[in-house]
Model the fold of this input.
Amino acid sequence: MFKNQPKGLYVLALANTGERFGYYTMLAVFLLFLQAKFGFDSSVSGQIYAIFLALVYFTPLVGGLVADKWSFSKCVVTGIVVMFAGYLVMALPTEVRSVTSLVVMCVGLLLIACGTGLFKGNLQVMVGDLYNDPRYSGQRDAAFSLFYMAINVGSLFAPTTAVGIKHWAETSLGYSSNDAYHFSFMVACA
Done:
């Protein structure tokens, strides 16, 4: 499976591992964050969560249209930068239960969704394009197995990391529960 793969596969798989790690790190604590930071009940928190997920899974359609006009690699790089900015915004400590905090969070979520839209579908196209070369064409199926395995590795460790970082910020650094969530979002930037 690992033999005769182009080097670009490992770079693209690592990029996707990092993106999924950040995404699932944030999602692991997001509902709890909404309830602790803003005092939302589970219904409102669930609606915000659902709207965010819908945007994350809808925006790749737009990202594909943009890539047709621009290029896949430019969309992927731009998407990484925009997602990073979104996670940074989410990591900003803000006041508890304030309108400003809600606006900051919404801006962060919108940036993450837009960045994911530019990144998500276009990265898979770049992996497929590596195998247009006849010497690698027989390895395409194995390549996508490796690529999706890398995604699973990123998402496997994210929830434990998110909760561990939040707990560490509370116990070792003395942050309140509300502020400790921002440390989990900061890890998503990495």
Q: What stands out?
A: The chain has a mean pLDDT of 91.
